[in-house]
Amino acid sequence: MAQIIGYIATSLDGFIADQDNGIDWLTAFDGMDLREHDNAVFLEGIDTVVMGRATYDFLAALDMPWPYAGKRSIVVTSRPLPEPCAPLETRSDIDALIGELRGLPGDVWMLGGGRLQMAFLERGALDAIEIYVMPVLIGGGRPLFPPTGLSANARLVSVKALDRGCVRLHYAFA
């Protein structure tokens, strides 16, 4: 059964994007030495990447090749993708998607924003999350987890101080 895992960076004040939905604050940490926790290492263990429409639109607007070539990529959206920038699948029913993902042999990365991760958490379908807390305050923007009223407990698996003041928090959900 596939594990569904979050892997995300946040500012010290709890935001994943600034007030203009930008991540320029995060690119200031490019080249940081994360060793075994580097995104490329993480991706080696992932077979399927799932993202929401806003994350897809952000990635599609970048002037670069699709970063998840060779991975099954699924966009959760209710609107068609006019000219997909890569081989993609779309789903609109989260409950059916969770059942489909659970039947996969390899692990799944819940990529991008907190809204989709929260939808999976609300359904008890996010198994673990790695949160990389960056030592910067950005003063507002898109929160790591949007307020939905969900109350959930997570079990701390590990904490690790990394390069340039970044801290990795690894949590598992029951």
Shape: globular
Q: Structural class, from secondary structure content?
A: alpha/beta
For this entry, what is the oligomeric state of its chains? single chain
Order of helices and strands: EEHHEHEEHEHEEEE
Query: Could you state the CATH homologous superfamily?
Result: Dihydrofolate Reductase, subunit A
The low-pLDDT segments are none
Straight-line N-to-C gap: 15 Å
Strand order of the largest sheet: 5-4-3-6-1-7-10-9
Question: How many beta strands in the DSSP annotation?
Answer: 10
Q: Which percent range describes the beta-strand content?
A: 25-35%
Tally the helices: what do you get?
5
Write the layout of secondary structure elements.
Layout: E1 4-11, E2 15-17, H1 24-27, H2 39-44, E3 46-52, H3 53-61, E4 72-76, E5 89-91, H4 94-102, E6 107-111, H5 114-122, E7 128-134, E8 142-143, E9 154-161, E10 167-173
Parallel strand pairs: 1-6, 1-7, 3-4, 3-6, 4-5
Antiparallel strand pairs: 2-8, 7-10, 9-10
Describe this structure in words.
This protein has 174 residues and is of the alpha/beta class. Strand 3, helix 3 and strand 4 form a beta-alpha-beta unit. Helix content is 21%, strand content 32%. The strands form 2 sheets. The protein has an 8-stranded mixed sheet. A two-stranded antiparallel sheet has the order 2-8. The protein is built from 5 helices and 10 strands; from the N terminus they run ββααβαββαβαββββ. It has one domain: Dihydrofolate Reductase, subunit A (3-Layer(aba) Sandwich), CATH 3.40.430. The two termini are 15 Å apart.
